[in-house]
Amino acid sequence: MRGMADNTLPVTASAPPVPDALEVIRTRSVVRDYTAEPVDDAAVDTLLEALLAAPSASNKQAWAFVVVRQRARVRRLRAFAPGVIGTPTLMLVACVDQSRVGGDPNLAGAARMCVAMAVQNFLLAAHALGLGACPVHSFLPDPIRLLLGIPGHLKPVLVVPTGYPARDAQPSDRRDKDEVIRYETYR
Amino acid sequence: MRGMADNTLPVTASAPPVPDALEVIRTRSVVRDYTAEPVDDAAVDTLLEALLAAPSASNKQAWAFVVVRQRARVRRLRAFAPGVIGTPTLMLVACVDQSRVGGDPNLAGAARMCVAMAVQNFLLAAHALGLGACPVHSFLPDPIRLLLGIPGHLKPVLVVPTGYPARDAQPSDRRDKDEVIRYETYR
Question: To pair with A141 at 20 to 30 A between CA atoms, which of A149, A150, B78, B137?
Fold first, then answer.
């Protein structure tokens, strides 16, 4: 029995290995339907770490994020985001912090792109952990602000329903590569 | 000798393995100085595949990308992008395709975020391949448009100098996690 025990993997190695980065980037797809299985604290920490590892224009880090998992609050939040289809077990609200970009419209535009990059990190980390998510642009910012107590200088720009996928994600149809990529010049 | 040969990895396995997705997300950092080593066609294909695997609001794919590697053209492009510091061997110009979002300002904003997400995929794929890059918001769009023949309906929003890192990237200082993340509500 001792011999068998020596051949048994330790319990800590039982989590599936994280797939390689290129595979995760290639195979991520939008997930709109979720099981009821909750997202645990360890997974949330990994997702948040990924968010905050994004590039930041002029290192302003002009962003703020609210993570919602309580079921009643998720349900109310969902009511203000008609772009959310299934019932997620986690919702991320991603905001631009306007107090950190002053009145500079270029910097405000850049800050919004940085939030999008952070959310892309979140989506990829979610996929790497076996979760699925969907960036949603269609929501009512004012009721969400009120529900979550988000102050005026933070502008919600994306809502991200997240959870374990209820079914296999379908890759979306894509335009031909030659239509959207040019080499050296556009001509 | 046969025994030794059996223990030798095949030549096709000689490329370093791609690190796992979470590691790539965590360790990516801005790279501003590059060696003269060119980015080969296989790497370019991988980078472009990553770009086009990004999410797209309403699946509009309202984006277009120009990849520049010819040295003289990179040098001229660089002259119009004061945010570019070193001498990259590749420059990506990432554009929103305004003809695909009509006059809808919400969709235009979403399209810009999708381009940013695509560029984040590009940055992560670059890091996974041992390349380094830096998203640059500060550039002169009109001369770049003229130089590359970019038509009026395409709006350049990011320029991304890319190449093999000349030195180890330094992670940037970051705000405390508790400052930018809230759980359940912002209060």
Answer: B137
